[in-house]
Design a protein that fits this description.
The chain has a five-stranded mixed sheet with strand order 2-1-3-10-4, with helices on both faces. It has a five-stranded mixed sheet with strand order 7-6-8-5-9, sandwiched between helices. The chain has eight helices and 13 strands. Among the domains are: 117 residues, D-Maltodextrin-Binding Protein, domain 2 (3-Layer(aba) Sandwich); 81 residues, Periplasmic binding protein-like II (D-Maltodextrin-Binding Protein, domain 2).
């Protein structure tokens, strides 16, 4: 086994924190191995004045890191799985995922105790078309203010931009130690998270030594959940450009699948929850796709 492993990551505080979590777990298993963290600047880290959907959507935070993997400049990469496109380069694979954190979004506000309390003319900050769509479906006259930046940057904008509230992912808030700011975990009935939210993933080349090295970190149940989410995402064809939420939860071979698809104006094509035996998941996915095809505006 190699004595030194190079790990690629974005340079944000959250990305570095997630990479540190992975390194700590690797060191527990391989105490004599050295892990070198290499920060790689991605397109998503350089363009802050445009919405995600206008500059490429999913893949914005991974392409340059994947390029480094393909060039053997790093041995593995640590990602937020919600940033990952549904299709990977042929030479690359998700080698492991850590156990999922709570995938829900959270509501943070100094004006309201609960998302249910917000008035229809309130200003809510989010840079996500998925969150915007579901917020407008929840209360149609909200003023959605686009905000981007790291977790702490977006929290600061709550005050600097006089917002009534912001919506962020719980996992990032927890990992950064900002849980005390949370007003409410938003239920799936109001907001379905994106595929992969709450999951730290490790991407490697399809090489036995790399794949075997990270394999002990893999949480099997989480892996099956996100692979199902990514499969449906790939079939639908959604990324950051499309307001799409998918969350799969597997317990005792029973699948609970929440799905949302809409547009940025709050129109909903599908927003529903399904409970099915895991063995019937292919039939369920076909059923969901059929419903979407029938309800699409172009149909």
């Amino acid at each position: 086994m190699k004595k030194t492993w190079k790990i690629g990551t974005r340079g944000s505080k959250l990305a570095l924190k997630q990479t540190e979590i992975v390194v700590e777990k690797l060191k527990e298993i391989y105490p004599h191995v050295e892990c070198i963290i290499r920060v790689i600047r991605t397109t998503g880290d350089t363009v802050w004045d445009k919405p995600f959907q206008l500059i490429g959507g999913k893949g914005l935070f991974v392409k340059e890191i994947e390029d480094a993997l393909l060039k053997n400049e790093i041995d593995m990469a640590v990602h937020s799985m919600k940033d990952m496109p549904s299709e990977l380069e042929n030479e690359l694979v998700i080698g492991a995922v850590l156990e999922r954190e709570d995938p829900r979004d959270v509501f943070i506000s100094t004006s309201y105790k609960s998302i249910h309390d917000i008035k229809e003319d309130s200003c809510i900050g989010t840079g996500s078309s998925r969150r915007k769509s579901q917020l407008l479906f929840f209360k149609k006259n909200l003023k959605i203010v686009p905000i981007r930046g790291n977790v702490d940057t977006r929290i600061k904008k709550l005050n600097t931009q006089n917002l009534d509230g912001i919506v962020l992912a719980y996992a990032g808030i927890k990992r950064m130690g900002f849980q005390h700011l949370i007003n409410e975990l938003i239920p799936f009935e109001i907001m379905v998270p994106p595929s992969g939210q709450g999951v730290i993933g490790i991407e490697t080349r399809k090489e036995i030594d790399c794949m075997e090295f990270v394999k002990p970190l893999n949480h099997e149940n989480t892996f099956h959940e996100i692979m199902l989410e990514r499969e449906l995402q790939s079939i639908i064809g959604g990324g950051c450009q499309v307001p799409l939420g998918i969350n799969a939860s597997i317990t005792n071979d029973v699948l609970t699948l929440h799905v949302f698809l809409g547009d940025e104006n709050g129109m909903v094509i599908i927003k529903d929850a399904y409970v099915e035996r895991l063995e019937n998941k292919d039939v369920l996915l076909k059923q969901i796709v059929s419903i979407i095809e029938k309800k699409m505006p172009s149909a």
